[in-house]
Amino acid sequence: MKRRALLQATPALALGPWASARAQGAFPGDKPIRYIVPVVAGGGSDLVGRTVTERWARALNGNFIVDNQGGGGGVVACQAAARAAPDGYTLLQGYVATHGTSPATRKVPYDAVKDFTAIGMIGATPNVLVVDANLPVKDFKDFAAWLRANMGKVSYGSAGAGSLTHLTMELLKQQLKVPMVHIPYRGIAPAITDVIGGQTQAMFPGLAAALPHIRSNRLRPIAVTGTTRAPQIANVPTLDELGLKNFDAMQWYGVVGPANMPRDIVTRLNSTLNQVLAAPELREKLSAEAVDPMPMAAEAFGRYYEQDIARWSALVKAQNLKIEG
Q: Could you tell me if 146 and 132 are in contact, meaning their C-beta atoms sit under 8 angstroms apart?
């Protein structure tokens, strides 16, 4: 009997302390979790990551180390995460660019679906259709009429070719059947500056970036993406309310790990993340970036970003968009 008990124990002993800890449900134990954020320190995406992991660490009874890896529009961070051991100790804060618009618009050196394990959604912020406050446009109906009266004369800015700010406006062009000239910028700030200055006439920035300029009356909000109105500008309707479809697209943030992570670890990470997201205090913290928590099951999150890639891929094909890089 002693020999049989020893043989049964041997596999766990051979795998060492990590297997023993997992058998006891102690993940993550004393080993810190590396949390890769695909941007340099500072800014909205970094704030989201640090805000969430600070509270997630307490829920897990563990530790996170935030690893900022900017470069290549998230490519550097995605490659680092995809190549890591699938043991739960390396996670990536994926977002709409890394697991949505970039795979849909250009060739990237990773498969956004097959190379990752979905852990869970964090939350999302809408994009807001804004115009130069000096335009003779008060609401969306005015805007559509003004576009048709100025065919071929209207330009819009974006944070860059293939960005969500670009593709959302292309979706609007497709549904309104009106031409607008795309002016890509290197980032959101100069694009907003040129709308305010009248060099371009409209754009679709994220709500957090647009809010200071909306509140100072330098930009006029016309409509928002998403399925519900944004509380920060509750008088502005959603595009869905206005009769347009497929504008549930948002600037979202979520968590993924390398492909083939163990199911029990995914379940623990997802359940504790959702626990954190349910706290009113976290909702208040994320409101600084106009991010609304969106807890969901790991499988549901995986379907969410797979559908996001499909959505934008179809638009790129339909609009015959040629995006370099």
A: no
